[in-house]
Amino acid sequence: RHIRSCGIQTPERRSPVAFAFDIDGVLLRGKEVLPQARRALRLLDGENKLGMKIPHIFITNGGGVAEDIRCRKLTSQLGVEIKPTQLIQAHTVLKSVASQYADSPVLVLGGKGDDLRLVAEEYGFRRVTTPIDIHAWNPSIWPFYELSPYERERSRPFDPTIPLRAAFVFHDPRNWSLDIQILCDILQSRGYVGNADYHNNTAGREPVELVFCNPDLLWGSDFPVARIGQGGFREAFQGVYKALTGSRYPYVQYGKPSEATFRFAERILLDLFEDQGTSDANRQIGPSIYMIGDNPESDIAGANGANWSSILVKTGVYREGSGPPSHRPTLMAEDVEEAITMALRRES
Ligand code: G3P
Ligand code: MG
């Protein structure tokens, strides 16, 4: 079969497959570890019918902290070592663009306090502002909120005379109202906050670039019903912006199912195989990668678009009885353990 002809070469034998795991709704539900998750990941460490280690990565539309911090937590939750080279979060792809903004003032939204400022600076952004900095500079920008002592101590000075060049929504915003207000301010004035003249006269200034890192309208948490994700924030912002200006604001969308995120993931997988001395430059690895996910709109749509194989599990957003999935997976499984078993049976 095509897959065998382009399987993954390991020093002793080929691994005919590689896996890409979604996290929320597949391995975790909120803080809960799904019961099959630990057994499933041990299958990839050699306890399988192929009798070999099977390359695998994790692609999540989640995030909020640096990859190494998230990996330490995932390693303790899942009982197997997970390295930063195996983890792609919603904002990880921004590592590949950060150098273009190294000296430009940018707004970073989402997550807690200034956790994501630290992540952005680790990626190479050097002039990062957060909505908390702006609110600390002038609380009347949004009078219905008071910074917590934690936020105030983490805020940094904000200079309203310097225009912001781009706004990146790294992770799910915690204060939609404050963030939507600030986005509407800077996008209408091409980068400035609090200057009425610039609201009315944007001549000669470049529009602010707007980037979202996670399109999920819904995601699978430990609540019995799927929760609204960063895609909901995007639609709330666009609804207010359109009411104010008559049109939606143009934006770049990363995260699953975007092609950029899956191409970035494929490069990570190839690097992983390089490390194992198994790279083969002209190998088309697509169909030999199995994306295991719970959300047809992100995991299955993205894998199908990238010409990977896809397995939809019923432990997260998609639930048995909710009708055919909006994107047809290669296979369907009850849970992550069954998904791996089905893929290995199919490839052996
Ligand atoms: O915020 C996380 C959520 O949108 C989805 O995460 O791991 O299911 O892609 P995941
Ligand atoms: Mg998920």
Describe the structure.
The protein is an alpha/beta fold. It contains 12 helices and 17 strands. It has helices at 2-5, 37-43, 67-78, 115-123, 131-137, 149-154, 176-188, 196-200, 230-245, 259-275, 296-305, 336-347, and strands at 8-9, 14-15, 18-21, 28-29, 32-33, 56-59, 87-88, 105-109, 127-129, 166-169, 209-212, 218-219, 227-228, 252-253, 289-293, 309-313, 331-333. α3 (67-78) links the parallel β6 (56-59) and β7 (87-88). α7 (176-188) crosses α9 (230-245). The model is unreliable at 1-7 (pLDDT under 50). Residues 22, 24-26, 219-220, 293-295, 316 line the site of magnesium ion.
Q: Secondary-structure blueprint of this entry?
A:
Layout: H1 2-5, E1 8-9, E2 14-15, E3 18-21, E4 28-29, E5 32-33, H2 37-43, E6 56-59, H3 67-78, E7 87-88, E8 105-109, H4 115-123, E9 127-129, H5 131-137, H6 149-154, E10 166-169, H7 176-188, H8 196-200, E11 209-212, E12 218-219, E13 227-228, H9 230-245, E14 252-253, H10 259-275, E15 289-293, H11 296-305, E16 309-313, E17 331-333, H12 336-347
Parallel strand pairs: 3-6, 3-15, 6-7, 8-9, 8-10, 10-11, 11-14, 15-16, 16-17
Antiparallel strand pairs: 1-2, 4-5, 12-13
Helix pairs in contact: 2-12, 7-9
The structure holds SN-glycerol-3-phosphate (G3P) and magnesium ion.
What topology, given as strand order, has the largest sheet?
Answer: 7-6-3-15-16-17
Low-confidence stretches: 1-7
Major sheet characteristics: 6 strands, parallel
Query: Count of DSSP E strands?
Result: 17
InterPro entries: CDP-alcohol_PTase-I, HAD-like_sf, HAD-SF_hydro_IIA, HAD-SF_hydro_IIA_CECR5, HAD_sf
Organism: Rickenella mellea
Protein name: HAD hydrolase
Keywords: Hydrolase
